[in-house]
């Protein structure tokens, strides 16, 4: 089983970090929806000043142990 917080835009950032840490500790991957609607990156930007993918990258949470489902709007114009 993999940790799978519902959506990177709408769950607490500490849950995303904890999911990645649990995956590391157990030798599995982790999974989340990310930027599936045009609104998702903007909601995240308003709340945190960046996009979900940029934040995941900055936190070191992207890599071979994560899958991003429905990643349609991974980069939006600023």
Write up this protein:
- This protein is α+β, with helices and mostly antiparallel strands and 78 residues long.
- 40% of the residues lie in helices and 10% in strands.
- The protein is built from 3 helices and 2 strands, in the order H-E-H-H-E.
- It has a two-stranded parallel ribbon with strand order 1-2.
- The radius of gyration is 12 Å and the shape is globular.
Quick summary:
The chain is an alpha+beta fold. The protein contains three helices and two strands; from the N terminus they run αβααβ.
Determine the mean pLDDT: 93
Rg, please?
12 Å
Instruction: Characterize the main sheet.
Output: 2 strands, parallel
Helices and strands, in order, run as HEHHE
Order of the strands making up the biggest sheet: 1-2
Shape field: globular
Number of helices: 3
Architecture blueprint of SSEs:
Layout: H1 13-26, E1 30-33, H2 39-48, H3 52-58, E2 66-69
Parallel strand pairs: 1-2
Key attributes of the depicted protein:
78 residues; two-stranded parallel ribbon
């Amino acid at each position: 089983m993999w940790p799978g917080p519902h959506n990177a835009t709408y769950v607490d950032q500490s849950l995303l970090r904890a999911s990645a840490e649990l995956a590391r500790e157990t030798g599995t991957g982790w999974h989340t929806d990310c930027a599936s609607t045009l609104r998702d990156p903007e909601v995240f930007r308003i709340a945190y000043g960046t996009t979900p993918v940029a934040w995941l990258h900055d936190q070191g949470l992207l890599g071979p142990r994560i899958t991003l489902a429905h990643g349609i709007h991974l980069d939006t114009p600023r």
